[in-house]
Amino acid sequence: MEPVARDSLTRIVYNNLRHALMEGRFWPGHRFKIRELAAAMQVSETPIREALMQLVRARALELLDGRSIIVAHMSLAQYLELRTIRLFLEGLAAENATPRITNEGIAQMAAFHQELVAAESEGRWSDAVRANWHFHHRLYEAAEMPELLAILDDIWMRNGPLLNYHYPHAPPTYPGPHEHLRVLENLQRRDAAGVRTSIQTDMLQGGVKLVKLLETGGDTRYLPR
Length: 225
Fold this sequence. Notes:
The chain has helices spanning about 5-20, 35-40, 45-55, 75-95, 105-120, 125-140, 145-160, 180-190, 190-205, 210-215; strands at about 30, 60-65, 70. The chain has about 220 residues and is mostly helical. Strand 2 (about 60-65) and strand 3 form a beta hairpin. Helix 4 (about 75-95) runs antiparallel to helix 7 (about 145-160) and helix 5 runs antiparallel to helix 6. The longest helix has 22 residues, at about 75-95. The radius of gyration is 18 Å and the shape is globular.
């Protein structure tokens, strides 16, 4: 076996951090300590620093004063713009996934939704955010459109930390049943248009309280945890 090159280590660290951001494991404003992160991931500080700088260039992280690196904050305007993009692209992915996703895939999505519901009822907020991401990602990867999925992952990398503010301040609410259930029902019927509409409705209805919360501060810098 040949030794792992430094760029390979950087790529591994980058992918791990990128995945963690998509899952919402970090809050906006979280400050990364390179030494501690290197120890936790059992690598040297160099690939950590390089991966963090790549994430800064991707706008998922912010570099403060040329030294400190934090998870990027998000304003209401940024959130609404990204949501507009997501409505189109996630709707597209959902529609294309509908005829392709297997029954096993639908069952996995149902399990992720049940985990979301259980986590919410038990106050396991971070688990709820993570389960929501897995529900959506399982659908979008079934579209078999890798370029689209890469774009969506980049958006979720920036949006994931913000979703932590759903709990306990702005939990997703719906006028009827949880919209995930409509997604699953439409998938069972292979109703592509219905799945697209349900995914878009989930974003709009589920995020009403989050929008109102952002309106109070205008930016995650000013929101309570």
